[in-house]
Amino acid sequence: MTNVIALLLTISGWALAEPLLLNIGLFALAGAITNTLAIHMLFERVPLFDSQKPQRQTFDFEPVLAEVDLSLAFRALQKAVEQSSLGAMLAMFGGSAVLQPLEQPFTDKLRGALLQIAASDDFQQLLLKQLHNSSQLDALQQQIEQIVQQRLHELTPELVKDIIQRMIRQHLGWLVVWGGVFGGLLGLMAGLLTL
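Now predict its structure.
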């Protein structure tokens, strides 16, 4: 409706040779058509440069490793040193308590090494391979497919069309109106500046 009103203003301004009315109509028409096209482009695929470039899927383990308690790894190292040939020498210097000040630096270094390993391409590829070969993933994928198929069978073309039209009218219809209004106001200002 806004497009029609803006077009009528443009035609009237041209037919009556009224530059102010012509400016208002042209600017309103430009705003309304632009917003109509924007709404159309929301629902239609718009090819962009490099939009088909596949994204490399990686996993960021930093938040997970930041929360992991690595003191268990330090205690395992401590026990291994005590049970090794270094254990007797360690006992002469105060036992495993001597190693205690090394716990924080050890866990920090271990966390850094684990992050480095997790970020490596080899590890990421291995993880992706395991995820794609996982039977749990297959079962989950099948469940999702069943749910989606069930929902798709419930939708008829008429129902989908009705849902989309209601959504467009409810949420985006005012975009065209305001595009026409602001375009008309800009046309009025442009017309007044030229007088």
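The chain has a mean pLDDT of 81.
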